[in-house]
Amino acid sequence: MRNLYILGLAVLLLLSGCAPKFEQETEVVQDSDKKAEKAIIPRYNISDSYYKAVIPYKTGKARGIVSAYINNRLDIDEFETGLMRIAQDEFPSDKYFFQEGQYLEKDTIQDWLKRKRSPAQQQAYEKAKKAKNGLPNEGLNPVFDTSEEDPGYEAAMKKSPIYVAAITEQNYLIKNNEDKLEVGGIVIGIGMNSHHYYNLPAKMGGYPRDVEIPNAEIESEGKKAAEEIINRIRTDKEYESIRDVPIIVALFRQEAVSSVAPGNFFTKAKVDANSSKIGKWETIKEKYYFFPSNEAKSDYREDSLMVQNFSDAIADFFPNFTAVVGKGFYKNDELQELTLTIPMQFYGKAEVIGFTQYVTGLIMEHFDNYISLQVYIESQSGAESVIVRDAGKTEPIVHVYN
Questions:
Q1: Residue-wise pLDDT tens digits, 197-206
Q2: pTM above 0.85?
Q3: Using CA of residue 200, residue 67, residue 63, residue 103, what is the dihedral sign?
């Protein structure tokens, strides 16, 4: 999704020959806890799929947490943009405006992502910190206090994974009757580990271990964490100003470090204004598949064959071609978006142009227009051309880089 955002902007720049024009800007006053702040809402929007961001852009209070705690780049991008997609159901982009989270502090989230300390660990911690009145013990991950001298250390580590990997907050603003912006909704994303990585002491072998966490366990622990997070937001005085704001909470299953496809959100629930009770959890049927792969071939044989036939058609006429690789986004078991990368060896610009023209024709023949499609043609020198066709469109947009 982020690549599509950048691509969409690049195409607009190409077509207009200059920076995007803002037809008019609306000035509003944004309410905050301490003072009123002037803000600007651009009237221009790249797409209905995206939210307009309030200007000046305010970075989140917990900026950097996701990139520090999520395993790979693919999951980092999907964790952020997938949460925006979920927000659309409750806070539509034609009425709400996006702002990064302004309530959960970075230190707070870091404390929540730790393991909960046992009574003995808490006592030692407070002693080390010379705390007179005690210190919070708010870790959302399970206690682990088994000594390395204990022969059951490895078994205990296997049974005590770090479940909660990351927490992110997004704010959705709305205009009130006084033409002021106020927080109309909050979305909390909870990233869950699907693999537990750990190292044993050198005397036990030392090398990295990888234990896969069952999906049922991920879901159960994620829901427990969600209940605790919502309870804290609704009861702590620090968040008193947003008690009357509805919250959507969603659970994300991040993939293994080595995965070539990102993880996915798998369930969500709503918390009404002035309530700390999480409503009914709803299943989210979203998943990414890598092409070619045995998993894609097994679960979506026709789509896998469609990509393979496209790849074979290129190979019939271009001897320098190797293979098409791609990523498909499925929602409710239907292919919504397909991103393909075609690596090639070129010996001149004319060859690039000819190849791009041929591939554009193949796209029209092999892929129905209900699929949002992006095709990137690359060489050792970098990006050579790009072909984009939005869902529902009959003609693609093509650009060959100079």
A1: 998 888 887 7
A2: yes
A3: negative
